[in-house]
Design goal:
Length: 1120
């Protein structure tokens, strides 16, 4: 504890006096570690590594000693491990001395040699200083061993060795002592005292000015405590943060970082130590030659090589173009890593630089930096010239298209101000040519790639005096070499280089003179020319030609330009790609940046379409060659221009089939091709529009050679076509097949008909006799009995041939269809005797007209009542019925009438019925009171319907004989409707509810009637069963249908009369009819007795019956 307290009191920096309560002002505060370090270095190990870390570790260990945290108390001498009283006495002695001494007091009470071994207090005081010294140097020294006996009486050589090793490890005191001063310490006392004095002054230079003198060298030399404190002060000063600086005279100085934290402050501090009249120190420099910035902190240079103090020197910098020497302004200058002031408007700059070799970097307007080296002399004023090289950049714009998608020309620009490029600039490949330093033309290859990079052109320097090449006179005139620059871009298949008519650089030099490089540096870029968009075409001989897209926007314009180059007509030049010709109006820019096109030399073919029958030129033909349509000329011919080789020319006329003609075309030659047109005729019938679209009218029969003139509503014509050849032979052809729905052209076989032969020796009369055989065409249509063919006489074709002559087929091709006749609609009437009469609809529009015609044929008077009718498909035609409705169907039949006298009887008793009618084929015959009626109908079997009101009573097949009368009976079935009256109006859940003021519910009567019209609309059907007596004595039950409406109930009379026992005795069974309805909850069934149909019972009626028929069903029909 006493050792720790004593060590804590010596932290200040004085040698003899105890430290003040806090660190002195300006003292370096060592870091306060959180982890204690060992006080001594373990035995057998050497201290190495980072010296700065070692120093800080020692300071931290010494500071941590008083707190009792350091566990290495073994380094304390053994004699300190005495009794507690001795330690307390030593601590008290140390505290008493600290109270008497001042903070910076070097003096002691006795300066004589003190016998420290006499008392424990003195020995404790000495051992405390020894322990502190040993603690401080425990991890700093590796070569010098500090043992306790040596530190109790430290020799002078020990102090020197400690100083030398500390100087080697920390750099402190380097350059302060000469080698002779260090070596003579152990030789003479004078040298010893000189060394101690100089060392004490060195370690005390940072002490605060307190007025206390430093102990003399003699005192330090004889006092062990002062020597230990000298070593402690040496450790303190060596560990202060400082930087070593080598002075210009070779001496090394240590600059304190607390006083001079920056390089500029250290330079000013070192200037104070220079002799009067020498150059000032302005900068500090590293060993590598790199200057330190003025405001750079020196804390990073505490370790490592020493810095160098550099004196100032002067430079006069001049910046000018290399070619003409013109001054350039705005040049950025940099010395090593420091930016200097830019040159002024005249290209001058005067600056002060540190001495020694320097690197001057200059950069002009975005050019690559120019690095130059200069050796700056201290205190001088040197001239330094910076030439501005010709760094040039040639660029163009990014390809773009106009509003129509066509590429536009691109400007090619040269610039020296490389800091301002347009956004759409891109590099240009090629070569820049101009005069070089040797007077010869120099080629510089432009940089390639996607990034704009300048190139350096080696321009010649301006000589002082030049010699005229012609006269030999010496003159000082000089032209800037940039005026002769030429640009040759690299070949580009998509663009062609088009330079300006006169170089802008040459024009400016000729008009203004001066330096063109300076104008490029200070002014805008200069356009040297343009890249015009082009395409490459290859001629048939293999030569390549460039076609300008701006001058030739279309394929037609390009062909015209190429024709002038190839020396031929524009129409015989075509462009094709992959074997396909390009249309003339195709925009040529669509092939820009694509594969090259090819030029084809074409030939001319004149196609003459002629009729195959008369060999006359016709109009209206269509032509194709290689799927490309060719427009015909007004005279019908076609001029086809196509490539050389074998081709197929297709011709088509007026909707006829396409005909292929092969031809071999020679380049540049004219060919003629005769294209015969076969005889294709379209024969059809056409019904013109009329008011009644449903009524058949006469259909015109037309013939035409132009199939496109056939109307959509035309119908194909069945039958035969007959043509008479020139040799008089008839040739029959089938016009259309059965079931055809469309008009199909018919080809006349010329190989059979043989065209007429017109020879040169024929006279006009003979030629006129050789008529076109189309006029002999005759039609034999198949009408199937529905139409009557009536051709025109004479034929219109024959009439035109007789009047005009020439080729009739040509007139059909070029003219309108020709009407040959009409198909008139007819109907056929079949008589009873099997004969048939054909009637035209135009003359007999209705059945009345047809009956008048038939009546005259049958010999009947038309004023008498007709005893016949017209039938179609079994239906009788009314007199006003239009015959056009039956046109196209089966034949109409004339059928004679027959008569039948019919009578209606009841089925139960055979009594006649009233109010019935008979219907035959939409004709109604009403019966009289006895149920009789005379029926008239065409001969044959007919269904006769007997009806009473809406009820169908009976249907019977009756046979009518022609012109004869027969009789027949119709029996009525026993059909009834049974219903009850409607329920009361007010009900709840189907039950009547008596309201206030409403009468009481009445009985609902049940009715029976054979007439459906008698059933009220609000009638309610009755559920239950009907019972009628049978002939065998039993009753037949008939169930009443249950539904929402009243249904009919038919009584089975055939079962009622069955059996051999005659229980009814001939009485009508309806007299015994009774009803048993299904009883309802609120109603009770009460039947009337006797029944309403008879006043007596059935038994009484049987007894009182007479021979007169008494039918209950007949009564019901009468009473309804």
């Amino acid at each position: 504890a006493a050792l720790g307290q004593a060590a804590n009191q010596q932290q200040s920096g004085t040698m003899l006096a105890p430290p003040p309560p806090g660190p002195p002002p300006g003292a370096l505060r060592p870091p306060n570690p959180t982890t204690p370090r060992s006080l001594t270095t373990p035995r057998g190990t050497k201290s190495g590594g980072n010296v700065l870390g070692l120093m800080q570790s020692n300071l931290a260990s010494a500071q941590a000693l008083p707190s009792g945290q350091d566990p290495t108390l073994r380094s304390i001498p053994d004699f300190l491990n005495g009794h507690e009283t001795a330690l307390q006495a030593a601590q008290a002695r140390a505290e008493a001395q600290a109270e008497r001494a001042s903070p910076r007091n070097w003096a002691r009470d006795d300066l004589q040699r003190v016998p420290y071994h006499t008392t424990w207090d003195l020995r404790t005081l000495l051992d405390t200083e020894v322990a502190r010294t040993s603690l401080l140097y425990a991890r700093l020294l590796s070569r010098t061993r500090l043992t306790m006996p040596l530190l109790r009486r430290p020799p002078a050589a020990l102090v020197r060795d400690v100083f030398v090793e500390v100087m080697e490890r920390t750099g402190f005191g380097e350059g302060e002592f000469l080698p002779e001063e260090l070596e003579g310490v152990a030789h003479t006392e004078r040298q010893l005292l000189h060394f101690i004095k100089k060392l004490a002054k060195l370690v005390s230079r940072h002490d605060p000015p307190t007025g206390i003198t430093t102990p003399s060298a003699q005192e330090i030399a004889v006092e062990p405590i002062l020597k230990n404190r000298l070593l402690q002060k040496l450790h303190e000063e060596a560990l202060r943060f400082g930087v070593r600086v080598t002075m210009p005279d070779g001496r090394t100085r240590r600059v304190d970082l607390i006083e001079c934290p920056t390089a500029d402050a250290a330079a000013r501090r070192l200037c104070e130590e220079l002799p009067i009249g020498s150059s000032d120190i302005i900068r500090l420099q590293q060993e590598s030659g790199l200057l330190l910035a003025r405001d750079e902190q020196l804390g990073g240079y505490r370790t490592g090589p020493a810095l160098f103090a550099m004196r100032h020197g002067g430079l006069r910098i001049t910046v000018g173009t290399k070619c003409c020497g013109e001054h350039v302004q705005g040049v950025q200058l940099q010395m090593d890593t420091e930016v200097l002031e830019p040159v002024d408007a005249q290209g001058w700059q005067r600056t002060t630089l540190p001495e020694g070799p320097r690197t001057i970097t200059s950069q002009t307007a975005g050019m690559p930096p120019l690095v130059q080296y200069v050796d700056v002399e201290p205190g001088g004023d040197q001239a330094f010239n910076i030439p501005v090289e010709a760094w040039l950049c040639v660029y163009t714009t990014v390809p773009r298209n106009d509003a129509h998608g066509a590429p536009v020309e691109r400007e090619v620009t040269i610039a020296a101000d490389l800091g301002h490029f347009p956004d759409n600039a891109m590099p240009l490949r090629g070569t820049l040519k101009g005069p070089g330093p040797d007077g010869l033309e120099t080629n510089v290859k432009l940089q390639s790639g996607m990034e704009l990079k300048p190139v350096k052109f080696p321009v010649p320097e301006k000589p002082a005096i030049t010699e005229d090449k012609h006269s030999g006179a010496r003159r000082s005139h000089w032209n800037c070499p940039l005026h002769a620059f030429r640009l040759e871009p690299a070949p580009n298949k998509d663009y062609e280089w088009r330079p300006c008519d006169r170089s802008p650089l040459l024009s400016r030099c000729a008009s203004s003179g001066g330096c063109e490089l300076l104008r490029l540096l200070n002014g805008p870029p200069v356009v040297l020319g343009h890249l015009r968009p082009t395409i490459t075409v290859r001629s048939p001989t293999g030569d390549k030609h460039r076609v300008d897209l701006l001058e030739n926007p279309t394929v037609a314009a390009a062909c015209a330009t190429l024709s002038r180059t190839l020396g031929t007509e524009p129409r015989l030049v075509r462009l094709h790609q992959d074997g396909e010709f390009l249309p003339a109006r195709t925009a040529l820019h669509t092939f820009h940046t694509g594969p090259e096109l090819f030029v084809a030399m074409l030939g001319r073919v004149i196609v003459q379409p002629v009729t195959v029958c008369c060999q006359e030129l016709t109009l209206g033909s269509q032509y194709w060659i290689e799927e490309e349509e060719v427009v015909a000329q007004p005279n019908g011919q076609a001029e086809i221009i196509s490539s050389a080789g074998h081709h197929v020319i297709r011709t088509k006329n007026a909707g006829m089939p396409t005909v292929d003609h092969g031809i071999c075309i020679v380049p540049g030659a004219n060919h003629e091709l005769t294209a015969p047109i076969d005889l294709w005729l379209s024969v059809y019938s056409y019904l013109p529009p009329h008011e009644d679209e449903t009524a058949p009218v006469a259909r015109g029969v037309y013939v035409c050679a132009n199939h496109t003139q056939v109307p959509p509503q035309a119908k194909p014509l069945l039958g035969m076509l007959v043509v008479i050849a020139h040799d008089g032979k008839e040739v029959t052809l089938q016009m259309s097949g059965k079931g055809a729905n469309e008009v199909v052209p018919l080809r006349l076989p010329m190989e059979v008909l043989r065209p007429r032969q017109i020879l040169a020796a024929m006279t006009p009369k003979e030629i006129a006799e050789q008529r076109c055989f189309i006029h002999s065409m005759q039609l034999q249509p198949e009408t199937h009995g529905d139409f009557l063919w009536k051709p025109f006489r004479p034929s219109p074709l024959l009439d035109r041939v007789q009047k005009k002559g020439g080729c009739e087929f040509k007139r059909l091709l070029e003219g309108d269809p020709v009407l040959l006749g009409h198909l008139r609609p007819v109907v056929h009437v079949e008589h009873p005797d099997g004969t048939t009469t054909q009637l035209e609809l135009a003359d007999h529009p209705t059945a009345q007209h047809a009956m008048e015609r038939v009546a005259g044929t049958l010999g009947r008077d038309r004023d008498l009542h007709p005893k016949f009718c017209l039938q179609h498909d079994g239906a009788v035609l009314d007199r006003g019925h239009g015959l056009h409705h039956v046109h196209g169907g089966p034949a109409i039949k004339a059928v004679l009438y027959g008569e039948v006298r019919a009578q209606a009887l009841t089925r139960c008793c055979g009594a006649h019925a009233e109010g019935v009618s008979f219907e035959i084929q939409d004709r109604t015959f009403t019966a009289d009171e006895q149920g009789r009626a005379v029926l008239e109908a065409p001969s044959g079997s007919h269904d006769v319907l007997m009806r009473r009101g809406r009820d169908r009573l009976d249907v019977k097949v009756v046979k009518f004989l022609p012109n004869q009368g027969t009789e027949d009976e119709f029996q009525m079935d026993l059909c009834f409707y049974i219903y009850s009256e409607a329920t009361p109006a007010r009900t709840e859940n189907g039950n009547p509810v008596q309201m206030k003021g409403q009468p009481k519910p009445q009985a609902r009567r049940v009715w029976i009637t054979p007439t459906p019209d008698a059933v009220p609309k609000d009638a309610v059907p009755v559920r239950g069963a009907v019972y009628v007596p049978c002939n065998d004595g039993s009753e037949e039950q008939v169930q009443l249908f249950s539904s929402n409406a009243v249904q009919a109930c038919r009584l089975p009379l055939e079962r009622m009369r069955a059996g051999g026992f005659d229980a009814l005795k001939g009485v009508c069974p309806l007299y015994g009819l009774r009803i048993e309805p299904v009883l309802e909850r609120d109603y009770l069934w009460h039947a009337d007795k006797p029944t309403p149909m008879s006043d007596v019972t059935l038994a009484a009626h049987v007894v009182a019956s007479t021979t007169v028929t008494d039918c209950a069903f007949q009564k019901m029909l009468k009473e309804s």
